[in-house]
Write a structure and sequence with these properties.
Low-confidence stretches: none
Strand content: 15-25%
CATH architecture of the largest domain: Roll
CATH superfamily of the largest domain: Outer membrane lipoprotein wza domain like
CATH class of the largest domain: Alpha Beta
Number of helices: 6
Largest sheet: 5 strands, mixed
Number of strands: 12
Mean pLDDT: 78
Order of helices and strands: HEHEEEEEHEEEHEEEHH
Length: 266
């Protein structure tokens, strides 16, 4: 009987070790996002070193037209509207410029000019185009265009993941990560994923933050509207993901029983 109990005690000890080892292991498939996306020449992001964005469908633009004669350009400006605190159109509240939404075909409906295609144009190109069209009606018009909904998303192993609105239409990947509170100690710094939609298709790029080339030319990556940055968890985070808080209690209980059994059979 004593030999049997000693044998069982040893087996329980081995079992405890096995449970401890496997309870701390997690596969990449259980932790990482976007695992099935592979970068190919067809879906790789190009021209990463430029920050001059181009307008896309679903962009919201404010367009303000000025001239020496304010009355002459009044038909080309949408009237400012008043919104209350709940963003509902109201007779009282702060004045706010109306925006133009670029539709799926890349167009907006502009006063007097009608349908105008802006998707695919930079701000300068769109400004020059509108000034040329409006100059047919007004002498020396000045057009100011702003992108009202420039935002990016930062996900994964950062301290403050979320969607961030960018007021000045220019931001690099290092600045975006700073907005998200920097990477956590579990973030994989040499394999950051950038996802961008180009002409309705998703494109990808892998970025290595461990090299100085990332923050110096020509690989200082500037982002465009609706870009997504994903920081994958490293091995340490994956290994701890399957740890069960009750595992320590279970192991302690098994160890205690094994010890008691060993004592009783002596």
């Amino acid at each position: 009987m004593k030999k049997i109990m000693t044998y069982l005690s040893k087996k329980i000890t081995v079992l405890v070790l096995i449970v401890t080892i496997f309870s701390s292991c997690a596969s990449r498939q259980e932790m990482a996002y976007f695992q099935d996306k592979f970068i190919t020449p067809e879906n790789q992001i190009e021209n990463m070193n430029t920050y001059e964005l181009k307008y896309k469908p679903d962009d919201m633009l404010t367009i303000d037209v000025h001239a020496l004669d304010p009355d002459a350009v009044r038909p080309f400006n949408l009237p400012a509207v008043s919104y209350n605190s709940s963003s509902v159109l109201s007779a009282q509240g702060n004045l706010k410029m109306q925006t133009y939404l670029i539709d799926a075909d890349g167009n907006i409906e502009f006063p007097v000019l009608g349908t105008v295609k802006l998707a695919g144009l930079t701000r300068k190109q769109a400004t020059d185009y509108l000034e040329e069209r409006i100059s047919e009606y007004v002498k020396k018009p000045i057009v100011n265009i702003r992108l009202a909904n420039f935002s990016i998303s930062v996900l994964g192993e950062v301290n403050n993941p979320g969607v961030f609105t960018i007021p000045d239409e220019r931001i690099s990947i290092s600045e975006a990560i700073a907005l998200a509170g920097d990477l956590t100690i579990f973030g994989k710094r040499d394999n950051v994923l950038l996802i961008r939609e180009v002409n309705g298709k998703k494109h990808y790029a892998k970025i290595d933050l461990t090299t100085i080339n990332t923050v110096t030319n020509p690989t200082n990556y500037y982002l465009t509207q609706n870009d997504v940055i994903y920081v994958e968890p490293n091995n340490a985070k994956r290994n701890s993901s399957n740890y069960n808080p009750n595992t320590a209690v279970i192991i302690s209980a098994i160890s205690t029983l094994a010890t008691i059994a060993a004592i009783l059979i002596r």
